Amino acid sequence: MCIRDRIIGELGERYEIADWIANWQLSVWQDRIQLVRLRRDIYVTPDESTHGMWSSRWLFVLAAAGSAVGLGNIWKFPYIAGENGGGVFVVAYLFCVALVGIPVMVAEVLIGRQGRQSPINSMRLLVQQSEGSKAWSLIGWAGVAAGFLILSFYSVIAGWGLYYIGELASGGFTGVDGNTATQALAALHSNPILMAVFHTVFMGITIFIVARGVVSGLERAIRWLMPLLFVLLIVLLGYGIASGGFAEGFDFMFALRWESLSFDGLLVALGHAAFTLSIGMGAIMAYGAYVPSSVSITRTVMTIAMLDTLVALIAGLAIFSIVFANGLEPGSGPGLMFVTVPLAFGQMPLGALFGGIFFILVSFAAITSAISLTEPAIAFLVEEYDASRSRVAVGLGIACWLLGLASVFSFNIWSDVYVVGEKTVFDSIDYLTANIMLPLGALFIALFAGYVLPRVTVMSQLGITSESAMAIWTVALRVVAPLGILAVFLYTIWPSG
Ligand code: PFF
């Protein structure tokens, strides 16, 4: 009897052995795996999640890209690049995406697919399987908290986007100059009721979709709207090039002016790499649970990360071209996109139409990200209390909406209420989540996947069959990603910083 049949015979009754063991994986590894080890390492991996499944690899790419591409790329990346002096910041961000973001994203999808449940329960299960400390499950809990905090302010900014749809489509920005566009945004900021209304609308739409279920709710919409957003970004870039500010914009984004590197800037770059890829809080882990077993995780993650980075770079180039062509200030803060984009469309033929469409698409990109922010919490509550998805979604939405009001007020009646240092509620939640919670989440996910997960689990999930591929994975997760994150943290809190 060959070793394969012996293992199946011996374990088959107690464990439902995953496909790969019965098939090709085992034949590659049969010489190296000892029976004893195998017993401990092999666990049932259900083929499907109870929450639903993506119908194909492409739909997972779209959903994960829908989570990754959002306000982070179009609104946040340009403004923080502007605040942190451009070039060096952008390069630091690209390094963080490659060295930390991609490995951690692979780890999240892997953990999600192995656990097939909400991040909290997937982590619990994998901790049990790996005989690791229960403390690792905290990764799941921290992720739920981060998602809740992020969504509270994300919805407020997305609300600005909704408001701008009407403003642009009605021709309100036709032919305006930089000053007028800046004042229009200031007028919105000084009006808490208007901001609260649009925050409410955005949260309402998000919760409505979430209540219907991620898989069926998302698939249809994403298929068309994401590619359309991409096309309109190219139109915006085309305008940026035509406006004569492209060379300066390009230089600002890519020329390395070392003097502009600040201690905090590096942390912001790392935090943004996590934020923009939606990693470090379990959103991608939750989506990973719905990925069919046949999909190649590594290839898919590369595609998602590349799409996300491309969108950010195109948005940045377009926005900075407009900034320099119009003598605006690159470091003007969170309002940057809401001044430059209306200004550009206001000067274009058919600008009202295209501008309106642009903000519809930005809002859409924000919705697909917001949905993923809720998924870890919703999936967990449904599993834990056997509650209906819609009830849980509404409860979460209301709580998050309430907290969001504090961010609304940060721009007006509470603009001088500081929580940490000189930071308003909005600034504090943004800083805490993006720059601390997500990088720490990413650090612990890397350590868990690198040190605790059984080798056999990793190899089967990633379809790794060679020692050299396994070595790359091991070094990336055990050394490169954790040290990268720790180095940035230490650099930031270093006394001279
Ligand atoms: N990646 C999203 C963006 O760039 O807008 C924001 C985000 C979504 C962050 C989901 C974190 C997350 F889990």
Can you characterise this structure?
The chain is mostly helical. 76% of the residues lie in helices and 0% in strands. The chain has helices at 3-11, 19-22, 24-29, 35-41, 57-68, 71-83, 87-115, 119-130, 138-169, 178-189, 192-212, 214-242, 246-254, 263-277, 283-288, 297-325, 336-347, 351-385, 389-410, 425-452, 455-462, 467-493. It is globular, with a radius of gyration of 23 Å. Mean pLDDT is 88; it is low at 12-41. Bound molecules: 4-fluoro-L-phenylalanine (PFF).
Q: Concise description?
A:
The protein has 22 helices and no strands. With 497 residues, the protein is mainly α.
The biggest sheet amounts to:
none
Instruction: Show unreliable segments.
Output: 12-41
Mean pLDDT: 88
The helix-and-strand class reads: mainly alpha
Give every kind of bound small molecule, once each: 4-fluoro-L-phenylalanine
Q: How large a portion of the residues is in β-strands, by DSSP E?
A: under 5%
Shape: globular
Count the helices. How many? 22
End-to-end C-alpha gap: 66 Å
> H/E series, N to C?
HHHHHHHHHHHHHHHHHHHHHH
